[in-house]
Amino acid sequence: MVLAQRGVLGTLPRMNISYLSFANVAPGRYIGFMRSVGLKVLKNKLSEYVRLVANGETVLVTDRDRVVAELVPPRPGRSPLLADAQLASAVREGWLVPPAYVMNEAPPRLPVAPMAVLLNELAADRGDR
Question: What domain range includes position 77?
């Protein structure tokens, strides 16, 4: 109301602007909360900030009050295993080619030799001793 009386709000007539209070804005839950941390503090408390990110928070990393990096939780479709991420990176970089046909089960094993042949070879090996 003080702003309207002093004319700061322009040529608005004197009116009750109490409905413009902060109580009428959206709560912070609609807007993602982001923490910011300097490099030195991040280095000293890295595990704490990694836990925050793993729980869904976003952390902005600053260097001399300038944002230089953003720590975000993994995307929903990302595999939790590091090996899968490394394989995906290798495919993107082109030094690994994915198979053209993906089987859902292991291929059937072919017998090395019939049992009778194996037993005959075993008996021959024992006879040579």
Answer: 31-96
